[in-house]
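Troubleshooting: if your tokenizer reports a length mismatch, compare your output against this known-good record of 175 residues.
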Amino acid sequence: MKIYLVRHGQCDSNVIGRFNFVDEDINETGVKQAEDLREKIKSIDYDVVISSPLLRAKHTAEIINVNNKEIITDDRLQERIHGSLEGTSCSLVDRDEQWNYYSEKRFGTAEMTKELCDRVKDFLDELKTKDYDSVLIVAHSGVSKAFYVYFNGVPKDGKLLELGIKNAEIKEYTL
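Known-good structure output:
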């Protein structure tokens, strides 16, 4: 099964470096990024779109769904749950430590990196049981880091911060 993983278009929190609000929509730049990506996706024959339930991902999915396929949402694809960090500046935490798979340090009530990776692993393991040839998935930077871990393993140093994909970027995997 081919998987095409897309990160949602830009939202204001991405620009100012803030832990995203749960249901923040993409901004004008994000809409343009999604429209540009739609052109690239025209050549991909996908069976279904599976999106994070968060507005910025769903809106991106609607824009890029050039084949007008069914869009299914799955809670396991939502961004890392930031808990008490929600809405605060990303500069307030040690992001390398926060995105270290092996770290046991808690950052407020935020979901641990390993917990996020386990949630995404559960999604991908279940996806293996489905009868799709090709799936377009729209999610978030944190989810893209968990995809990296699923397909490539955890880096020796456990650092995942720089392994996510950019806004409206697409990455292909084979499941």
